[in-house]
Amino acid sequence: MVTVYDVAKAAGLSIASVSRALNNQPGVSQATSQRVAHIAKEMGYEPNDVARSLVGKSTRTIALLVPDIANPFFPELVKSVQAKADENEHVLLLADGAGDRHRVAASMTVLRRKQVDGVIVVATALTVDADELFVDIPTVFLDREGPRLGASVVVNNEAAAFAATTHLIDLGHRRIAHIAGPIDLEVSRQRLAGWRRACSTAGLPSSDDLVVPGNFLEDGGYNVGTHITNPSSACTAVFAANDLSAIGFLAYCADNHLSVPDDISVVGFDGIHLSRYTTPKLTTMAQPIVELGRRAADVLFDLIRGEKSVPRIVLSATLLPGASVASPKAVLQ
Amino acid sequence: MVTVYDVAKAAGLSIASVSRALNNQPGVSQATSQRVAHIAKEMGYEPNDVARSLVGKSTRTIALLVPDIANPFFPELVKSVQAKADENEHVLLLADGAGDRHRVAASMTVLRRKQVDGVIVVATALTVDADELFVDIPTVFLDREGPRLGASVVVNNEAAAFAATTHLIDLGHRRIAHIAGPIDLEVSRQRLAGWRRACSTAGLPSSDDLVVPGNFLEDGGYNVGTHITNPSSACTAVFAANDLSAIGFLAYCADNHLSVPDDISVVGFDGIHLSRYTTPKLTTMAQPIVELGRRAADVLFDLIRGEKSVPRIVLSATLLPGASVASPKAVLQ
DNA sequence: TAAACAGAAGTAAGCGTTTACGTGATCTCT
DNA sequence: AGAGATCACGTAAACGCTTACTTCTGTTTA
Questions:
Q1: How confident is the model at residue B128 (pLDDT cuts 50, 70, 90)?
Q2: What is the side-by-side strand order in the sheet with A61-65?
Q3: CA–CA separation, B245 vs B269, rounded Å?
Q4: Do both B161 and B252 map to the same domain?
Q5: How many domains does one find in chain B?
Q6: What residue stretches are annotated with the HTH lacI-type domain (chains A, B) (predicted)?
Q7: CATH classification at residue B107
Q8: Which of B91, B120, B260, B270 should one mutate to test binding to chain A, selecting the residue with the greatest count of A CBs within 10 A?
């Protein structure tokens, strides 16, 4: 490995001058600066970021903790965060599996040791007393309220779920099931709450038998199909807590010769790219995924630069129309 | 930040002893070792990995370069690589956007500076003379042949594409279109070649008008729908170079009231998890995604540990049956 | 009992940078 | 023309750790 020493020797200078030249800092003449740059390139010198991080304050690294990278929602988010990281000349460390509390703790220990400049924590399962995990390291909570301390960028899940459900109600549906997410996630509870409020506001049932537990995955949505489409349940529509669940349910319907939306309407949540390519195309409450990532990253870099305030940014979701909803065949009087 | 010095002072020891104690190395008594451990914990000491990396050889970090993390194939791969990284007490750096040559070069520079221990490079676009990008840093090419140097873990794309196409031929299809991937990717070319060989082996046409260019994304598959289903093309089946393209095509068919597989059969490639939940369920040539990631990581860590040989591992894909293929309605004599 | 040795601890160098400070040489201004 | 300012560069410390080497104490061995 060629170091500043080597370059310095070759240039007949001290390492200090070389360092200054390479970082075009004042204190070196234009001429030497160019000469050094040339020599460095010639020798194939690359600065060692580890050493640089040790002396400087920054590692130029941020981390993103996601519960499940296999859920298409997150890759889309990753892309947008990474773009911002690039922009700020930082590198992205990905930590998957944040759905599990222990893994979150383990990850944070590793990240702290690695001296990452900051962390974006997404929709993870946290114990109530998780505050200390994030102490001393700039953190933005995304799509989940952080512990007491901490900035956050969230979508108003409750309101969005309310709107999604109301959309179905306006179309004439009177019994609407809900495929919930993992109930230990705040977002799941909020979406459930929104569905419930919409139902009760309209004087419709929102009893527990209309809530079927999902897992935010396709199989979750698939497996509850039987329960929802059971004639005795008499549902004409279903609001899924996320798109993957909705897609699973769609598959169930297809396998069982139920037509969506003729037999049953489906509304998803997330607005993942794939929701534009399901059969039928999914009507979904779309989160501003790219915007979420961007804003979170912006806030994080503000924090990293020393910003003291810890903002709480709330973005809103918008209904993305598809072909998976319709008025119920027989609107009950 | 609490350092070894602080711990040493608190324990009345030298930093050397503290270091030894903390890493349970010989040279400290059992008693002191425990005492130090206790004090360190008490003080909330966390070793600084940056410093550790600077003195030691390793940063305990590996990187994964993927062309497009939004393609569900990659998150599944990421998961498996990350599991292996965990196992080896390494952290995963994700670099997206490796579909672009310039970004690959840029990423490698950053990674080299960051002193990552190794890199897994997936299916990226590389210039022919890209060798030098990876010199001096353990590299495994996944799903793509590396430059001259370099270990690789690949799927026999040509053979797999051949088998997928043959499956359609065996069912009686006589005109089979191919939705290709970006043609500057080796994998795309190989899959195209497999399709072509299958067709010509069976004495079927494989002319260029049967090859429609895709982009490995849903919209690519969707947009070529018109061309493929045009009556004058007379295709009864299509083999897509990846699942996302197939899913896009499925969506096109649904939008245009074409039944899959009654009107046209579709075979995908990749075997992403979502292919189990399309309507109809996609028949696809499934890559052993998890295995690919695992093997690549294994090879990489071997390399990191000093292994000299650079293996070339070839895995094979298997046909995952779905409901998107059938015999053509009218088998031509 | 002296010599050899093992164990526990300390000293200090070094990893590759950045940067505060010091030192001449050249320049500016009155 | 001499004092101060400016410039280009060098010296050395610091970042937080690991580790080769040294030192000291106490134990074993002949």
A1: low
A2: A312-315, A151-155, A139-142, A118-122, A61-65, A91-95, B91-95, B61-65, B118-122, B139-142, B151-155, B312-315
A3: 9
A4: yes
A5: 3
A6: 2-56
A7: 3.40.50.2300
A8: B91
Enumerate residues near strand C (beta carbon within 7 A).
Answer: A 1, 3-5, 15-16, 19-20, 22-23, 25, 27, 45-48, 51-52, 54-56; B 12-17, 26-32, 51, 54-55
Residue B192 located in a structural domain: yes
Q: How far is CA B308 from CA B34, B292, B302, B303, B304, in A?
A: 40, 21, 9, 7, 9
Alpha helices, DSSP H only, in chain A? 4-11, 15-22, 30-43, 49-55, 73-87, 101-113, 157-170, 186-201, 218-223, 225-229, 243-255, 289-304
Q: Is residue A124 very low, low, confident or very high in pLDDT (cuts 50, 70, 90)?
A: confident
Q: Please give residues of chain A from 44 to 83 whose alpha-adjacent beta carbon (CB) lies under 7 Å from any atom of strand D.
A: 51, 54-55
Q: Would you give the DSSP letter of residue B227?
A: H
pLDDT tens-digit readout, B250-283: 999 999 999 999 999 999 999 999 999 999 999 9
**C-alpha pair distances (Å), B291 with each of A97, A311, B275:** 19, 43, 18
Do residue A75 and residue A37 come from a single domain? no
Peptide bond into A47 cis (omega under 30): no
Peptide bond into B280 cis (omega under 30): yes
User: CATH number for the domain including B38?
Assistant: 1.10.260.40
Say if A50 is an interface residue toward chain B (CB within 8 Å). yes
Structural domain of B30: 4-47
Beta carbons of B292 and B256 less than 8 angstroms apart: no
Q: Indicate whether B70 and B117 sit together in one domain.
A: yes
| Strand D and A113 CB separated by under 7 Å | no
Beta-carbon separation of A91 and B93 below 8 A = yes
Is B114 in contact with A94 (Cβ distance < 8 A)?
no
- In A279-318, the residues whose Cβ lies within 8 Å of chain B are 279-281
Q: Do residues A254 and A108 both lie within one domain?
A: no
pLDDT band at A177 (very low <50, low <70, confident <90, very high): very high
Residues A43 and A124 placed together within one structural domain of the fold: no
- B145 and B161 part of one domain: no
pLDDT of residue A4: 96
Candidate from B59-68, B121-130, B220-229, B266-275 with smallest mean pLDDT: B121-130
Does B331 or A288 have the greater pLDDT score?
A288
Taking phi over 0 as left and psi of -120 to 50 as alpha, with beta for the rest, A275 belongs to alpha
**B289 contacts B73 by C-beta, under 8 angstroms:** yes
Q: Is the CB of B20 under 7 A from strand D?
A: yes
Token readout for B176 is 């089979």
Dihedral in degrees, nearest 10, Cα atoms A325, A331, A332, A333 = 130
Q: What angle do helix axes A30-43 and A15-22 make, rounded to 10 degrees? A: 90
Q: What average pLDDT does chain A have?
A: 93
Q: Which residues contact A157 (CB under 8 A, 6 or more apart)?
A: A187, A190, A191, A194, A317
Are B140 and B299 in contact by the 8 Å Cβ rule? The answer is yes
Which of B49, B97, B109 lies at the smallest CB-CB distance from A114? Answer: B49
